[in-house]
Design goal:
The structure is a homodimer.
Chain A: H1 4-22, H2 28-39, H3 45-55, H4 65-85, E1 90-91, E2 94-95, H5 97-101, H6 103-121, H7 129-154, H8 161-186, H9 191-218, H10 221-224, H11 230-234, H12 239-247, H13 250-261, H14 267-280, H15 283-304, H16 309-324
Antiparallel strand pairs in A: 1-2
């Protein structure tokens, strides 16, 4: 079995090879933005999850590489289009695709990436290919649904915790579940194990997103790599905000809304005021507990998976790595 | 065997049923624009071609309906995104999706349609499903490539006839070829016949697009349903323009470019001046001959298809219908 580091290295080598192949394809105006997007780096969490799941059953992961690539290309496709919709100008310290190449390119090259992900997914034959394709298609539709909810919730005053969790399940968690389940299906695992891995991915995905929200509000910017309070300034829903609105008394709720809607308030002051309210309501601890609960769920699911414990150790290791992000 | 009219009716009934199913899906903000786009009508040429090809081999077309739907949903996805890129505000006499629902909706609902087309395509089992999916994916990528060339050529002064034909092959013709070949593959035809049908679709697609260009320059607006000269005003490449630039002497070429680039020239005057040059160069007849040649190619391919002539009669009929568009 490979270590997580080894899987990351194998995957990055494959990505580099494939992305340089794209460079020879015409029209360059379509394929260059794709290469730019794939070369920008990132955690590669989703394809690594796919390879980890596959590697639970097979030592040789070669034939799972195209599917891992497919997941990463799909994920990057969503980033291209989301960045247009959210008017984000910077990603991973570089200009976003629509800033660098123009919006039309980001739309069209994004589209091409969606189809490219199907091409990669179908590259290797597998007994379970139709299961994999159905899962992938279902997941892709859910990710679109999640992004739609996310956009709609931006202008909503009250989003319940349940609504918020369902939104991030669709927007973020299902792709982690899909990655793990695809890896298992491609390795011809039982459906029972494949479904457990899917649930594991859902819990990791929810934890991951709430952790992102937590770090955005309470993290230290030198670790997190972006400025604290981005969600507050962008007027985005987040787990801390959803909980604060749920727990605040009427007066505090009014105050919170007023601060968030105040366009003249300087950014620093706005963040400070919101964090003060979060503080009163002990949101930092509450959100942290939620993250811990989700990691615990993931651990429980992992224990239920009918494989020898040593084979699963890498997953525990990954969870420890992920949990460290919050400190 | 069904008549073309009957196939159209069956297809429209299925589309209506499916599009009303979409209405119950959440979030409505994602699915309403899809329904709006599917309900807007159109010729439904591509799904009808798929059904015609399937109907060559099977009397009962029921199980080809989801794939026909997939092709139409995919085609409409390209319209949603192309209309953003081309800043088109009206389609089929109604506001385009990005005008009615906003650009973000047109991007995201378009994305969902791309995935929805895969879902429909996989709905029925078929022995040749992996062939169908590979063809569809290849076609989708080619359509993106064609759109990219189209956008790039708008700012190019010289586009050769060969480049132009390749662009419209990718942007338009391959989807007609794909529709016919999918129909044949789903009906479990031989690869030989499926490939002939693909080539037939390519020739019909090229003829169809050049006819569109011809009608835009030389048609009578009451038949065509849109104003003459739209391509000239929009600065789009078209078969007449490509031929005119190819055939004109240096002086006429200069003049043509000057007129096209002159932003102060009133639309009516600009169209008149360009048509005058087309007239001098006998572009109307030349383009018409090209269309006839492509229909003749299509007819030759049809004759080579190893099926009894009466079974193929509907295709001859369709070609006659298509040819009538130019008069």
């Amino acid at each position: 079995m490979y270590t997580i580091d080894e899987l990351q290295k194998i995957l990055n080598a494959e990505l580099q090879k494939r992305s340089s192949e794209l460079d020879t394809q015409k029209p360059a105006g379509l394929y260059s933005p794709i290469r730019y997007s794939l070369d920008a780096g990132g955690k590669r969490l989703r394809p690594v999850l796919l390879l980890m799941a596959y590697n639970l059953f097979h030592e040789d992961i070669e034939s799972a590489l195209p599917a891992a690539l497919a997941i990463e290309v799909f994920h990057n496709f969503t980033l291209l289009h989301d960045d247009i919709m959210d008017k984000s100008e910077v990603r991973r310290n570089s200009p976003t695709v629509h800033v660098k190449y123009g919006e039309n390119s980001a739309i069209l090259s994004g589209d091409a990436m969606a189809f490219l992900s199907y091409r990669y997914l179908m590259e290797e034959n597998s007994l379970r290919m139709s299961d994999v394709l159905e899962l992938f298609t279902q997941t892709a539709l859910e990710v679109c649904e999640g992004q739609q909810f996310d956009m709609e919730y931006e202008s909503r005053e009250i989003v319940s915790e349940a609504e918020y969790l369902e939104m991030i399940r669709l927007k973020t968690a299902v792709l982690l579940g899909c990655s793990l389940k695809c890896g298992a299906l491609l390795a011809n695992s039982t459906y029972k194990i494949a479904n457990h891995l899917y649930d594991l991915g859902i819990n990791l995905g929810l934890a991951f997103q709430i952790q992102d929200d937590w770090l955005d509000a309470f993290g230290e910017s030198e670790y997190f790599g972006k400025r604290i309070g981005g969600d507050i300034i962008a007027g985005k829903q987040s787990y801390p905000l959803v909980k604060a609105i749920e727990l605040a008394d009427d007066q505090t709720k009014q105050q919170l809304r007023k601060v968030l809607a105040d366009e003249k308030l300087p950014a620093g002051k706005k963040i400070e005021s919101v964090l003060e309210i979060y503080n009163q309501l002990e949101i930092k601890d509450l959100a942290f507990e939620k993250i811990q609960t989700l990691f615990l769920n993931a651990e429980n699911i992992l224990q239920q998976i009918d494989l020898a414990e040593p084979r699963k150790s890498k997953f525990y290791e990954l969870m420890v790595q992920m949990q460290k992000r919050s400190h």
